[in-house]
Amino acid sequence: PVLLAGTTVSRATLHNVDYIKDLDIRIGDTVILEKGGDVIPKVSGIVVAKRPRGASPYVISTKCPVCGSKLFRPEGEANYYCENYECPAQVKGRIEHFAHRGSMDIEGLGEMVVEQLVEEGFIKNIADLYSLRKRKDELLKLERWGEKSVLNLLDAIEKSKEQPFHRVLYSLGIRHVGAGVAQLIAEHFHSIDELKGATFDELRSIHEIGPKIAGSIVRYFKDRKNIEILERLRKADVRLEVSPKELKQRGALAGKTFVLTGTLQSFTREEAKAVIEGQGGKVSSSVSATTDYLVVGEEPGSKVAKAKAIGIRTLDEDEFRTLVSAKAR
Questions:
Q1: 148 touches 141 (CB < 8 A)
Q2: Is residue 45 a contact partner of residue 58, using CB atoms and an 8 Å limit?
Q3: Residues 6 or more apart from 308 whose CB is under 8 A from it?
């Protein structure tokens, strides 16, 4: 740990093997540390004079440290990936992503719980979550699990079935498909079956969908394992299509850009964003000439002054609630 620009820094990432090679950083080296943008710790060089005798270069493993499968590195990317779909680390990661608050929002299914359920053999993929209710008695026998915690988890899993299609799409973990891209795709393809039948060129025709995203989606639906999991999700009544209500609401705020500032009482930030995007609007992090509305909560920041200076309309929480309620009718 070192004191740097007012804070003690004990860790700095070196996740790009090309960067390590370019700087010739070796095991045991003394490194030069700086803060990128005065915030992010960054290793910017080495002190050759302090290098230990015989210091060896870092060589990245060719095998996954968890399952031992071969690693591969896509062309033009910095990261290495394990090719084994059933690698325990990948299984846990996919389930954690699926359950995350911004995805299916399954409360109680955090990292430690996922790890325990995977290691005990209760879940091997995201579809297994919707079969857990049948194994309630077995769950009750697990260490640190009581009836209340089991029932709360099962209820949270059941409630996740109500998540809209775009959230489900994001939760699937299709490579390069983030929350915003999932929302965009769901506006063009109203069901998983429509998306499954989409060609590379059809996907590319959507503004903001590049070749990497389009190719990733096409590859996802060519994988038999993914199709099997989707069918199980369908049978479990997970929403794999845009609901009639969503279709009716969609477009009510189309073309409108919102910025949120301060703390809202009736909505969390995620909930407010979901309401806006669900009606076709967009949420930006900064006020600009393209902003239509600034939603102001308690203890707002400097965005209010900027919005007034350039003539952006501000809404308090009641006005915002009235606007989205009226648009939803």
A1: no
A2: no
A3: 314
